[in-house]
């Protein structure tokens, strides 16, 4: 990976010299501040707090997985020339650490703005991934030892809690005020307005939980919303952890979730964006429950991005879904 980044850095330098940076120059002439973001939540938060005072760029393409994203030479050039690099951090953005090595770049990491939680493996959750199945039990033990040596793996989807979103936006505002004191009044006004909207969203989720007859949710999918359920005191069952590589559940995992839906009287199961929904369909067919989208906001479609969809819009959709799922 380091070799690839070195090659990309050289290509980026060559492109900057050969092309004279026409596209980036135009952006910087219009707005002095350029914020480069990696994932949609960071992109949307930056749009709201910086407003018209900054150009905000999103690196990971719509619908793409940040876990498999690799920056192009053009991406690296943009990061090197930006005012602020606003990323998520964590294992899915391991390339960021290598890119920033020995470079002085203004960087804000969302994971550093809140108290990070370790990724959790709940009862019934499929834990062994494909490559571990291939190596057998002995190698699985070696893998666990290796994980212990490397330390805990943290859940990276910090923005799924609106309370965390407030903390992240406050940190972003303060950093922008430091970088651009002349715009400080605007950034703080934008933060105050946005925080009020996030507080309304937070209150709506709390009301949905308080008025619901259940306190358990079931995700027939990966589970990228641990910060959300922790914030609102919900229990959960899911097929996979949030950053799992697996997409096909075992029969045992599906059977476990079906039993939970029946035992708990769950009226609806969740799937997340860009899911194939197959597992949710199987559970719904077997139990008679409904399937609902719970949008993690990690990424959006090209049409949604071009249509100006926001974190708030997606999360308000989750409020409605939660009400139905809690009965």
Key structural traits:
327 residues, alpha/beta, Rossmann fold, four-stranded parallel beta sheet, two-stranded parallel ribbon, 13 helices, 53% helix, disordered N terminus
CATH class of the domain at 2-116 and 156-195: Alpha Beta
> What is the count of β-strands?
8
Fraction in helix = 40-55%
What's the CATH H-level superfamily name of the domain at 2-116 and 156-195? Nitrogenase molybdenum iron protein domain
Structural notes for this entry:
By secondary structure, this protein is an alpha/beta fold. It has a domain at 2-116 and 156-195: Rossmann fold (3-Layer(aba) Sandwich), CATH 3.40.50. It is 53% helix and 12% strand. The protein has 13 helices and 8 strands. The protein has a 4-stranded parallel β-sheet, sandwiched between helices. It has a two-stranded parallel sheet with strand order 5-6. α1 (2-19) crosses α4 (73-81), α3 (40-50) crosses α7 and α7 runs antiparallel to α8. The chain is globular, with a radius of gyration of 21 Å. It starts with a helix and ends with a helix. The model is unreliable at 1-29 and 128-148 (pLDDT under 50).
Topology, please?
Layout: H1 2-19, H2 22-30, E1 33-37, H3 40-50, E2 54-58, H4 73-81, E3 84-87, H5 94-100, E4 107-109, H6 130-150, H7 162-179, H8 184-211, E5 216-223, H9 226-232, E6 235-241, H10 251-264, E7 268-271, H11 278-287, E8 290-293, H12 302-306, H13 311-325
Parallel strand pairs: 1-2, 1-3, 3-4, 5-6, 7-8
Helix pairs in contact: 1-4, 3-7, 7-8, 8-13, 10-11
